[in-house]
Specification:
It is built from nine helices and no strands. It is mainly α. It has a domain of 143 residues: Orthogonal Bundle (Tetracycline Repressor, domain 2). The protein is elongated. 22% of the residues are buried. The model has no long low-confidence stretch (mean pLDDT 86). It comes from Microbacterium pygmaeum. Keywords: DNA-binding, Transcription, Transcription regulation. This is DNA-binding transcriptional regulator, AcrR family. GO terms for molecular function: DNA binding.
């Protein structure tokens, strides 16, 4: 029983660390969120903090997982397949818009994505799995919308899913270089571009985001 109680306490402490880390990085930015600062936020030494994760890289990987969980709770419906094109589009663009409010987490994601190209990096599997889940969610929606005529079928749905992923990731880099770029509007414009004229609601033309 004592071992089980210690395990439960350890899980709870990990959750506390991740939740506080999200707050610190969102507030202070990626560069301002050192292991020492994260440890101080939860009343631990740096060694005590890393005891729960093994390394700084594993800690940051789990922070990204926690960020994904929080976004699903805040923006994701139970089943993406339940959404029509307008609902899916709004949900996705809302997440992109939210990212502009948490620049530190965007910086962390983009920096870790580059480092995770190395197969030995602790975040390598996270980014592979996340990308696969991202495309799977899009693929289901895209195929259904192509079948209904709401979205062009001139490009294979799997290719379109990768294009959406590439645009979302690439816009984050552009935005970090130039914060005046409107990530949400630019990603939303991709939906407009892929929607046949007869299926697109009448709305203002989407020009270059400033």
């Amino acid at each position: 029983m004592a071992g089980r109680g210690s395990y439960a306490k350890g899980v709870a402490k990990r959750e506390e660390i991740l939740e506080r880390a999200l707050e610190v990085i969102a507030r202070e930015g990626y560069r301002g969120a050192s292991v020492k600062e994260l440890a101080d936020a939860v009343g631990l030494s740096q060694a005590g903090l890393l005891h729960y994760f093994g390394s700084k890289e594993e800690l940051f990987t789990e922070i990204l997982r926690k960020r994904d969980e929080a976004d699903v709770v805040a923006y994701g419906p139970a089943e993406m397949s339940d959404l029509d094109l307008a609902g899916f589009r709004k949900t996705y663009v809302d997440v992109i818009r939210h990212n502009s409010d948490v620049p530190g987490l965007v910086q962390l994601f983009s920096r870790m994505a580059v480092d995770a190209v190395d197969p030995e990096h602790p975040a390598h599997r996270y980014f592979l799995e996340r990308g696969g889940m991202f495309r799977a969610a899009f693929l289901e929606m895209l195929r259904a919308r192509q079948a209904s005529g709401e979205m062009t079928d001139r490009v294979d749905a799997e290719v379109l899913a990768r294009i959406f992923q590439a645009v979302a990731d690439g816009m984050q880099v552009q935005w970090m270089l130039d914060p005046s770029v409107d990530m949400a509007a630019t990603v939303d414009a991709l939906f407009v571009a892929l929607t046949p004229a007869h299926a697109e609601p009448k709305e203002p033309r989407v020009d270059a985001a400033s």
